[in-house]
Design brief:
The structure is a single chain. This protein has a five-stranded antiparallel sheet with strand order 11-10-9-12-13. The radius of gyration is 19 Å and the shape is globular. Helices cover 27% and strands 23% of the residues. A hairpin with a 2-residue loop joins strand 9 and strand 10. With 291 residues, it is an alpha+beta fold. Helix 1 packs across helix 8. The chain is built from eight helices and 13 strands.
């Protein structure tokens, strides 16, 4: 019997709860595995006791990136870790979007403003500012050129905290066709969802947002699947090393899908909310990886 740990976190206050965890643990146990959900930062856990540790919902990692990566390295030294630690290191810094763009993958154009850099904000279009290490729309906000003073205050606050900012044009297509997430598990397409726009005009960057509004099932187009597969092909060491992946897509200025984010760390799988029928496939892929 394989022992499997699903790495999660301890929600505090109004932080989201991973409602997929009980479904996965139950299905894994039904499949014959000894599965438990474990906070990634629990100092009492001996990760060598497990045949496989799966990063599932470590949703506080973005404010603790170095600590998280140190844990991932220790965990990977003790047991098999999915996804691999070098992939986690690459994917926890959204400057990986530059690697995708350099490889010819359609991506949302992105500029980076590190602490000490002189900010250059768009003067002719709405834009978004968010951190290179972030999740769940944390510290993300949408601005117009007339709101530059407010945007500069956000940059100053982020730089005080040592965060590098990314600046992207606001993709108008999100307001029309939404954002699509294409998910893969065990090397195969799992399912897809569509959600509405996360960022609303005038909402402050440090206000908690609804990360996945207006969720609904989605059947990806051939073009969306093709872009998602091109994005996965850029992963260091090859996509075949991944247990799971989520590719977030929006329609670019040309109306074609482009990558907003490639999520290889702790993607919401939308099982309980949209795709409960996928629980079995996810559990089967995890059991296979632990064998």
């Amino acid at each position: 019997m394989s022992r499997i740990a699903l790495a999660t976190y301890r929600p505090r206050g109004d932080q989201p709860v991973d409602r997929d965890l009980p479904l996965l643990v139950e299905e894994l146990r039904h499949s014959g595995a000894d599965a438990v959900a474990v906070p990634w930062d629990d100092a009492d856990v001996d990760w060598a006791d497990f045949d496989l540790a799966v990063v599932r919902s470590t949703w506080d990692y973005s404010w603790r990136r170095e600590e998280f990566l140190e844990w991932a390295a220790r965990c990977a030294a003790a047991t098999r870790l999915a996804n691999p630690v070098d992939v986690l290191r690459w994917n926890t810094d959204k400057r990986y979007l530059g690697d995708l763009a350099a490889a010819g993958v359609p991506t949302v154009p992105t500029a980076y403003v590190a602490p000490g850099d002189a900010p250059a904000l768009p003067a002719d279009r709405p834009y978004v500012i968010k951190p290179t290490a972030g999740a769940g729309a944390r510290y993300a906000a949408r601005y117009t050129p007339a709101e530059q003073a407010v945007a500069l205050r956000q940059l100053a606050r982020m730089h005080e905290e040592g965060l590098t900012a990314m600046v992207q044009p606001y993709v108008d297509g999100i307001d029309v066709t939404g954002e699509r997430a294409v998910l893969f598990y065990g090397g195969s397409f799992l399912h897809s969802i569509r959600k509405g726009a996360v960022l609303s005009p005038g909402v402050a960057f440090d206000t908690r947002k609804t990360a996945h509004p207006s969720l609904e099932p989605w059947q990806p187009t051939e073009a969306e699947l093709a872009v998602a597969e091109r994005a996965l092909a850029t992963v260091p060491g090859g996509a075949e090393r991944l247990l799971y992946a989520r590719v977030d897509l929006v329609d670019g200025a040309d109306g074609r899908p482009c990558v907003m984010e490639l999520e290889l760390v702790e993607p919401n799988l939308f099982l309980s909310a949209v795709h409960p029928g996928s629980v079995g496939a996810v559990a089967a892929a995890i059991v296979k990886a632990a064998a």
